[in-house]
Amino acid sequence: PERVFSGIQPTGNLHLGNYLGAIVKFVALQETHECLFCVVDLHAITMPQAPDELRQAIRRIAAAYIASGIDPVRNIIFNQSQVSEHSELAWVFNCVARMGWLNRMTQFKDKAGKDRENVSIGLFAYPTLMAADILLYRATHVPVGEDQKQHVELTRDVAQKFNNDYSESIAARGHTAGFFPLPEPLIQGPAARVMSLRDGSKKMSKSDASEFSRLNLSDDADAINQKIRKAKTDPEPLPTELEGLKGRPEAENLIGIFSALSGVTPEKVLADFGGAQFSSFKQSLADLAIHKLGPIGAEMRRLEGDPGYIDQILRDGAVRARAIAQPIMNEVKDIVGLLR
Ligand code: TYM
Predict the structure, then answer these.
(1) Per-domain residue ranges for the chain?
(2) I need a surface site. Which of 140, 150, 302, 326 has the fewest CB within 10 A?
(3) Helix (H) / strand (E) containing 163
(4) Burial, 6: exposed, middle or buried (Cβ in 10 Å; 0-12, 13-18, 19+)?
(5) pTM (2 d.p.)
(6) 5: CA distance to ligand 1 center in Å?
(7) Catalytic annotation on 333?
(8) Active-site residue 114, yes or no?
(9) For domain 211-302, which CATH number applies: 1.10.340.30, 1.10.240.10, 1.10.3720.10, 3.40.50.20?
(10) Is the ipTM of this complex over 0.95?
(11) Per the residue annotation, which of 149, 206, 232, 333 is the catalytic one?
């Protein structure tokens, strides 16, 4: 049976990349799949977080899920640390994954920067916790943006090595095709990698110093208008065909954003706007972004004003998530030879 798992870190503001690269796909997948959508607070503390801000940020991600149209009844929306099996399985995976595998993770290299001796061990082990998130539910599909592809591939490696290392014990328990499935990343679409509005060669990110580099889900109409008006472009008019976007990363990014927000293919967007100057295209893009994001931001603010409601959804989600996770974690313990 197919099962979807994904998560978002409660750090900083949610931006258009998180929305188009991940949340929009979550909203679609709930129609066809059993889904778990997690707020990964344990991943957030791999970097320093102020406790009160972290608590707020956790609720804000849950609010964003709901405000974007994810139904908390049909799906499981929950917070990672409230299901302690995530940490338990992560430890087992720390003993399965190899140092060499984690040394190759580009996100670790980016986040650690030059001062490798001084980052937390949690930041290094981040991907084994992510593998635990996914495999604790034996999830088969993982909707993420392009930047998480390497982590999902590592998750497959961990699953495969666990299946191999314990193959006899697994077979003895009646599993004929290994214990963990090899989960597939779902990355496709025109917004798998949304780029910075200031620099088409950098991805849109929570950590970029410039507010003008990203649209936040919480931005009001004025902010959206300004940021899109100031978005970097080149002097040529828009091309009429995809070919013409080659070597024009800023134009390609804006067309991709328009396509993802409108649900119209990039070809069709160019057929409509090809030959136009950026200024008129940008006005249409700003109108579209305000139309799509405005109501979500407003609903998020409304939900954040009712933390009791959010906390109840997260508690309920944790109970439902644990009902799936606990029997799987028990089997892992039996397979490995841990007494319970
Ligand atoms: P995080 O919190 O950095 O980002 C959340 C989701 O947003 C996507 N994303 C983007 N997509 C397109 N363009 C961008 N510029 C962009 N920036 C971010 C990310 O790819 C992600 O899908 N490690 C994960 C969280 C995680 C997780 C998991 C995901 C923890 N456990 C298990 C899936 C399954 C992360 O840091 O995402």
Answers:
(1) 3-192+305-336, 211-302
(2) 302
(3) helix 149-165
(4) buried
(5) 0.97
(6) 12
(7) no
(8) no
(9) 1.10.240.10
(10) yes
(11) 206
